[in-house]
Amino acid sequence: MTLSYIISLVIFVILAGLTFYSFFIGAPYFKTPKKAIKEALKLADLKPNQKLYDLGAGDGKALIIAEKEFGAEVVGFELAPIIYAVARLNLFFHGIKKAQLYYKNFYKQDLSRADIVFCFLSIHAMKRLKPKFEKELRPGTKIISYSFSLHGWTPKKVIEGYPGKIFLYEV
Ligand SMILES: C[S@@+](CC[C@H](N)C(=O)[O-])C[C@H]1O[C@@H](n2cnc3c(N)ncnc32)[C@H](O)[C@@H]1O
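A: This is the predicted complex of the input protein with S-adenosylmethionine.
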């Protein structure tokens, strides 16, 4: 076994471990369809200069659409290292300069400055986020969740057929 082989193996194991960790504590990586992102942002009535937080930003597509097409200030958190790197490249190639994308765990971030929170996560993650939303989000903050509802909250609106459901909540 050569040294370079061992180093590659160690790097692979670390990256795979970090990726698995983010999938385990939040949600695995799946893309929200572009059409669903646009519809969700319209549903939330996202306006220029409003702050949109994407919890689990994936490949950064929602950040790109929110900034380019809606003029929003965007903030994203992504914890899977390879997906984070892909998002960084996507932002770069789309000429997105103002977006703030962090390689951070969203459970540990302060969400109080968000006007709109976007998420496509899992049942487990929504349950874990609920008390955080209740504690940190300001009255009037909107939450748009693709596919997963917030248990115990009544959505203001639900639209279907994208192909999943889009839930809109307001604090
Ligand atoms: C289903 S994907 C959604 C990606 C993107 N928001 C979209 O809609 O296309 C969920 C993403 O959340 C990330 N994630 C899961 N738990 C996380 C955490 N605690 N902090 C940051 N990112 C997390 C995963 O790595 C994955 O990329």
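The mean pLDDT is 91. Strands lie at 51-55, 73-77, 100-102, 116-119, 142-146, 157-159, 166-170.
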